[in-house]
Amino acid sequence: MVPQRSEHQEVRLHGIGVSSGIVIGRAFVLYGDLIKVERRILRKDQVEAEVEKLVRAIERTREELQVFRTETAQRLGEKDAQIFDVHQMLLQDEMVLSEIIHRIRSERVNADHVITEILSKYEASFDGAEDEYFRARAADLRDIKQRVIRHIQGKEETGLAQISEPVVLIARDLSPSDTINLDRSKVLGFVTELGSRTSHAAILARSLKVPSIVGLVDVCHQVFSNDPVILDGRNGVLIINPSSETLTLFKRMQRGFTRVESNLARVKKLAARTKDGKDIALSANIEFFEEIGTALDYGAHGVGLYRTEYLYMTRSELPSEEEQVQEYSRIIRAMNGAPVTIRTFDIGGDKAQRFFSIPPEANPFLGFRGVRLYEHNEIVFLTQLRAILRASVHGPVRIMFPMIACVEEMRHCKSVLVKAGEQLQREGLAFCADIPVGAMIEVPSAAVTADLIAQESDFLSIGTNDLIQYTLAVDRGNKFVAYLYRNFDPAVLRLIREIIQKGHEQCVWVGMCGEMASDPFATMVLIGLGLDEFSVSPVSLLMIKDIIRRVEYPECENLANAALNFDAAVGVENYLLDVMNRKFKDLLVCDAGIA
């Protein structure tokens, strides 16, 4: 039943923003599968014809998916096109096909009913899985189910064909084929109940630059078709029935985005250099190959953080050494000689665990995660290091180890790296023997002993996401205490200063790859504290670069010293807001009204 609301009041819903942009328009709510399936008993002489109908429908679906694959390869490249290989693999599962045919013959019921029952069972199992990989595969299975049923029933059109004017699409889920075929003149952006940052629809949305939000639970039952809505893909916010004040604000923000993007375009090819000539390394954080194009276009100095967990989270088995060599090599080649910092897998906590023997933990974020897994899974770790070393022949590479808490862990990781190199040398496989190795500083113990860890490292990179959380004893995902998670808490600023100073004392450069590096309010403070490298999300590159180019180093030092003198985060925040309003007012429209 379509949901009812008693009044048209403004409602704000929060999901996972997976593709940036602000969209203002009318909602179009896509309810359910829009396919009616009824159980029919077949005559004995109809059974084999029904099986043949199933086989033809599967073949037509295969052909249809191949067309989507070809179109995707032409529009977005081979990597995005490989998404449809997963569909073909699921479609060719002989065990499931045999089960469907057996049910048709033994129960003498129609094929579309059997498919609905059997695939819905697998779909529900995937949807309920803890592992993000399997939840993402539920959308792929739904797409296959609907396409095969439509071909059995002779129905070619989907609910998307009903869209005749520009709308914000609201749906339970979108398949990759739905996403790739969205008519951008009619679909301004989309919001789904299901999905994650690593779902195939999310990956394609980023490549297509369609503003989108996923994981917004029960949204289909909170929005009417034709409701006025605002979609903020950057912050993952959907506003239903916005007030006139909110509408005015977001229209101004839209104009502001356009103006800022136009102004920032001028710095794309310019160096990240202060007005008085101090060069700052400005790199990109990436998780997917598709993000490299934006990073290069916006003038990234290199990749300061390549998260490799994606390779483990989007597959049903561990990636082989050869598969990893291929993936790392294409990223390194794509960066055209700019350095790529590859972080070894950071599993545990809230990330994929199915390949590792991790027992239930009362507090997984303080448990068996990150570098702590390596000694107990040395073959997996060794395989990844071998793959990185082999890929290093294609360009400059750095290796970074996550969640280092003490110098002993750093030494252990380096010993396994030496072992990997010795194996490759014996096997006659080429690799670069002189690869910089660094530690990710995201644990307070590592921050306090940064001088000791720096003696075992070529560089340090501050991971503020966890460092702030652990330093302040705040679970940022806990709504009751998340307000205490603050970048500019005096304890955080003092700890960052200490890490940078201790790294420099050991003649080691220090970068930052946590979210704080992408915060324009923090840029001058971090420059003043002596940070050598900012590694930020690709969409933040131009803004951070623009700020760097508009300041001088001594003024940043003075500002950092002033920030360190406050006794509470609110004082720092108000001080920096005043500075930004005076010096960078033209950039502030990007976050107006979001907090």
Instruction: Work out the count of structural domains.
Output: 3
Spatial sequence of strands, sheet with the most strands: 1-8-7-3-4-5-6-2
* Gross CATH architecture of the largest domain: Alpha-Beta Barrel
CATH fold assignment of the largest domain: TIM Barrel
| Biggest sheet character | 8 strands, mixed
Mean pLDDT: 85
Describe this protein with a few key phrases.
disordered N terminus, TIM Barrel, eight-stranded mixed β-sheet, alpha/beta, disordered C terminus, single chain, eight-stranded parallel β-barrel, Enzyme I, Chain A, domain 2, 595 residues, Glucose Oxidase, domain 1, 3 domains, 45% helix
Q: Can you describe this structure?
A:
The longest helix is centred in the first third of the chain and has 30 residues, at 47-76. The radius of gyration is 26 Å and the shape is globular. Helix 7 links the parallel strand 4 and strand 5 (187-192). 45% of the residues lie in helices and 13% in strands. It has an 8-stranded mixed sheet with strand order 1-8-7-3-4-5-6-2. Strands 9-10-11-12-13-14-15-16 form an 8-stranded parallel beta barrel, surrounded by 4 helices. The two termini are 35 Å apart. It has helices at 47-76, 78-81, 83-91, 94-107, 111-127, 132-153, 176-180, 200-208, 244-264, 292-297, 309-313, 321-334, 378-391, 407-427, 444-448, 450-454, 464-472, 490-505, 523-528, 541-549, 553-564, 569-583, and strands at 11-14, 16-19, 22-30, 167-171, 187-192, 212-214, 228-232, 237-240, 281-286, 303-307, 340-343, 397-401, 437-441, 459-462, 509-512, 533-536. The protein is an alpha/beta fold and 595 residues long. Helix 1 runs antiparallel to helix 3 (83-91) and helix 3 crosses helix 6 (132-153). It folds into 3 domains: 11-34 and 159-242, Glucose Oxidase, domain 1, CATH 3.50.30; 44-153, Enzyme I, Chain A, domain 2 (Orthogonal Bundle), CATH 1.10.274.10; 276-570, TIM Barrel (Alpha-Beta Barrel), CATH 3.20.20.60.
